[in-house]
Design brief:
This protein is an alpha+beta fold and 142 residues long. It has two domains: 1-33; 42-141, Tetrahydropterin Synthase, Chain A (2-Layer Sandwich), CATH 3.30.479.30. The chain has helices at 2-32, 42-47, 76-84, 86-98, 102-106, 110-125, and strands at 49-58, 64-73, 131-141. It has a three-stranded antiparallel β-sheet. β1 (49-58) and β2 (64-73) form a beta hairpin. The longest helix has 31 residues, at 2-32. It is rod-shaped, with a radius of gyration of 28 Å. It starts with a helix and ends with a strand. The chain crosses the membrane at residues 6-28. InterPro entries: FliL.
Length: 142
């Protein structure tokens, strides 16, 4: 009879220790989780971004431009899709630039307006995710 009590006490103690350990691990994990700010880290941005190599094309008024981009997508699937659509990306960029005059590109906020226009047009062709942001990485107007 004494052995049964001892075994029961040991089982209860082991269960209590296990329960305390589990609760401690859960609390530590909850405390250490950083709040989701909604903004991706730079590593996440780079991981889901596609580089568009330098494109040289004529503008509407006969001047020409050399320009390159980094395009941030919403996911790895979107990145993979955008990489496959590289010819469409280049085509949209060239079409957009061919409609512009060099004076338009010299105006205040012209680069950000162009980036937003390209973002909208690219999202029009995307199926597996979306373009989050278009960054101009080089820009030479002649």
């Amino acid at each position: 009879m004494f052995k049964n009590k001892l075994v029961n006490i040991m089982i209860v103690l082991l269960l209590a220790i296990t329960l305390i350990g589990t609760v401690t691990v859960i609390i530590i994990n909850k405390v250490n989780v950083k709040p989701a700010s909604g903004e991706p880290t730079i590593d996440e941005i780079i991981k889901t971004s596609v580089d568009v190599p330098e494109i040289t094309t004529n503008l509407k008024n006969g001047d020409y431009i050399k320009i390159s981009y980094k395009i941030q997508t919403s996911s790895d699937d979107a990145k993979a899709e955008l990489e496959k659509r590289d010819f469409q990306v280049k085509n949209l960029i060239i079409q957009q630039l061919a409609q512009m005059q060099s004076d338009q590109l010299k105006e205040k906020d012209s680069i950000s307006k162009l980036e937003n226009t390209l973002k909208e047009k690219l999202n029009g062709i995307m199926q597996d995710g979306k373009v989050e942001k278009v960054y101009t990485t080089s820009f030479i107007l002649q």
